Structure formats: structure tokens, C-alpha cells
Amino acid sequence: MDDWSGDGRGNYRGRPSGGFGGGGGRHNDNYYRGRGGRTGGGYYDGSGPGGYYDGPQGGRGGRGGSRGGYQDGYQVGGYQGAGGYDSGGYRGAAGRFNDGGSRRGFRGGRTWNNAGQKRQQQQQQQQYNANPPPNMTLLKTIQAHTSAITCLSYDQATNALYSGSKDGKIKQWDCNSGQVVHEENLNGQVTAILFIQGFLFVAYVKGQGRDQDGIINVYNTAAGKTQMIPGHRGYINQLMVANNLLFSCGQDSSIRVWGMEGEAFVCKQILDKDKGGHTSPVHSFEIINGFLVSGDSTGTLKIWDPSTGTCTQTIPMAHGHIITSILQYGNNILSGSSDSTMKVWELTNPPMPGAVVKPEPIDSYFTDDGASRGGRYRQGGLPNAILTMDGSPDNKGESMLAIATIKTGVSLYNVDQGMTLLGTLPEVDVVRAITNVPGAAIILGDDNGKVHIFSWSG
Fold first, then answer.
1. Which keywords does UniProt give here (predicted)?
2. 6 domain-assigned
3. Cα dist from 169 to 193, 249, 276, 389, 433, whole Å
4. 314: CATH
5. Closest Cα to residue 202, out of 217, 188, 213?
6. Do β-strands 282-288 and 399-405 pair in parallel, antiparallel, or remain unpaired?
7. Which residue from 114, 111, 137, 106 is spatially nearest to 391, judged by alpha carbons?
8. Are the C-beta atoms of 205 and 189 separated by less than 8 Å?
9. What is the pLDDT of residue 22?
10. Tell me, what's the pLDDT at 36?
11. What's the pLDDT at 124?
């Protein structure tokens, strides 16, 4: 294993082509896009401001161990076989998950088909199912870090997995062998990670207390160069790449847009309260139909026109607490929150100034458990917070949604079949990071520093 300099900047030692290996590629390839990992609940575990959701739930589960041959099972599971990425499961005619090169949640022409009375009748039995999904197999559990894993990113071109942790380290894994290829100690909690087109973007925090700064390291794996960007005040919660621009959002209530000038990234725009933006920490965002949709710690959704940097619409109190995840499914937006609910919003067609998203959700899932739209918690304890969500196709091309919560683990739903609950992924602790191999596998990172790889089967 090669060693690297640990100061978060400068050149790597041991590899003339740079430390983190990748698939090469150029950052300026036209209009690639990708969504990076986020803290997945970094503020709800006692480590950051607020300190929510720490305590008795933290020790649940966490059994390790591997079952079956990792490499054989992974290959047979559909990644390189029929129904895998190139055979149509991911880029099939329905286009449900077409993301232009990296996962971006739900896309395509599907419409939400489980609204109203049907959803109300199903809601109770769909809150929790302790049985494992019938078509998933746990291939491997890896003790990847010494502290909670906060973010994951998978590169399909090289079959490499990148992980970041509270232990301050980022690691690159060979998904065939399950072994570490490279690692670097950034000496600060890693909060978001994204690999796309030969570039690795890593967000981490430096300093203590009120003097914390969010830093972004940009690793050009093809050229072997690294740039350190002082990005935000406080934590950076998510990274995203779209239309040759890098987006970051953070604790300082701002969204920053970065672009290339020469060989370096520079800040092009700051989307903050002066432009009608958020006044509370921004925890999640997504580019949807050309608009930037963002969610903050008060449960407010905002919709931006990225071309002008203006906020075109605000939906206050969309949730009762932090909006932790935003995804797209067809003509709908899915938002998950620490108030325990997932809500479905419909895009207007065509979009109108100030009305890109219809102001009321067309559906809401799971009980509020103490929170409601526009309300705060009732007495009786904290809700079953949604920490993160991830959309991916299974080996048959069906749209699957993995939802990680603080109390009940990671549940898997078939969205194409009206949010049918398939079961709960076994043998994992509290999960704050999810990524996927389209049509082949779901990869989880938990609070015990373990990576769990589940393969689609059947």
C-alpha cells in the first residue's frame, strides 16, 4: 500500500501518477453529473452542533463477518452478467435511473402511483419489516474505519469504492478483493466524498468549535495533482457535480458553486441569504430538471435557477426538521427528513416563475412520530429520523429506494410497485452512508466503521 502525505495538500508519495487511482477522464467532459455522499446525519449523533439522536440507539446491531465468496458472489450477482449495468437494467428504455455517469436518484418518465387512500391503507404495515429482502444477499462486511463512516462513493469504471469517516481518513477499496488500495489521513472529520470522471472530491472539517472550516480537496487522479479549497465556515454537508460545475452546501447556510479556471477550481457563485437563500444550515440538494432543489435544518425547501444564481421559490416548513435527502423520481421530488417522514412533491409542467414545485406534497410516508408539517415535536421522544436515502435499480431494472433511519436500520422499498416494503437489510448498525452499483449491489457504511456490500439475487 502506498503512503501519502497527510496534510491534505501537496503531492503524494510513492506513485508518480498520483495517489488515488482512477479511470482517468477529463473534468471538462461535457455535462457529466454526479451526487456525492453527505454526512448522513452528522449533526444527529452528538458530534456536531445540536447533538441529536445519540445514545441507546447507537449500539444496535453491528454484527460483522462475511458470508460466501465475495468475489465470486459479486460477479455472479449481476454486475458483469445479464441484467447488469451494460445490459439495460441501468440504462434501459424506461430510463428510471439515468444519471449521466453517477447515481442521481430516480429519473425517467415514471409517475407517482401510490397516492391517497391506497397509501393510507398501506402505511401501517410498511413502517417496518424485520425480515431481510428476499432478493438480496450480504456478500461482505469489512471493518473499514475506526469510527463512523460518513460518506461513500462508487466508481463503476474502475470498480473502486471510496469511503470517508469521522476518523479523518479517506480510503480507496478494490471491490474485487475487498482490500484497501490507498488511504490518506486528513486529520479532520470527513463529511462528503464524490468520485467522477477521474476526479475525487473530498470535504472535511478543520479546526475546533467556532473556528471550524469546511475544506474541499480535489484530487486529479489522471494528472496526479491535488488542490485544497477553503470552502465553507463549518461542516460541508454534501457535494454534487452537474454541468461541469461543483456544488457544495454547508453549515454556514450557503451553497457554493465552483468552476474550473485553467487547472484550478474557483468559486463562481455563493447562493446565500443575500440572494433569497437559506438562513439555516443546508443539508441536502439535487439538480432536478435544470433547477437546484435544496433543503435546510428548519425543514425549508428552496428552488434555484443555477444559471442566474437566484432563488425562484421557497416552500417553508416542508418538513418539521432537517431535510436530510432529496431525490428525483420521474416528475416528482422525494424529500427525507429527521422528522421521520418522506414526502413526495410534484413538479409543475411547464415550470412557472416562482412555482417550479407544487407547494403541497402529493404524498407523505411514515408516521410523523412527534412532528408534523409546520410543527415541532410532541412529548414522547425523538422521531425515527431518516438519516439518508438512495435510489438504485435492482438486477431486473426495478426502481428501489433504500431508506436509513436512526431506529429501524435500512429498509428497502420497490418504488415502481407503489413503495412496497421488501424488508430490512440485516447485520448493520446505524447507517449514514449509502451508495450502489447499478443493477448489482447496495453498499452501506455504518456507525461502527463497517462497510456492508449486499448483492441483488434471483
1. Repeat, WD repeat
2. no
3. 11, 21, 36, 23, 15
4. 2.130.10.10
5. 217
6. unpaired
7. 106
8. yes
9. 43
10. 58
11. 43
CB atoms near residue 15 (< 10 Å): 16
Largest CA distance in the chain: 61
Residue 24: inside a domain: no
Question: Which grid coordinates belong to 249?
Answer: 452546501
pTM as predicted: 0.78
Residues with pLDDT less than 70, the chain: 1-128, 367-382
Beta strands 149-155 and 160-165, pairing class: antiparallel
Per the structure, how many domains does the chain have? 1
Does some domain include residue 227? Answer: yes
Residue ranges making up the domain that contains 168: 33-456
Q: Which amino acid is at 218?
A: V
> What integer pLDDT is reported at residue 209 of this predicted model?
80
Cα 173 from chain centre: 18
In a domain? residue 19: no
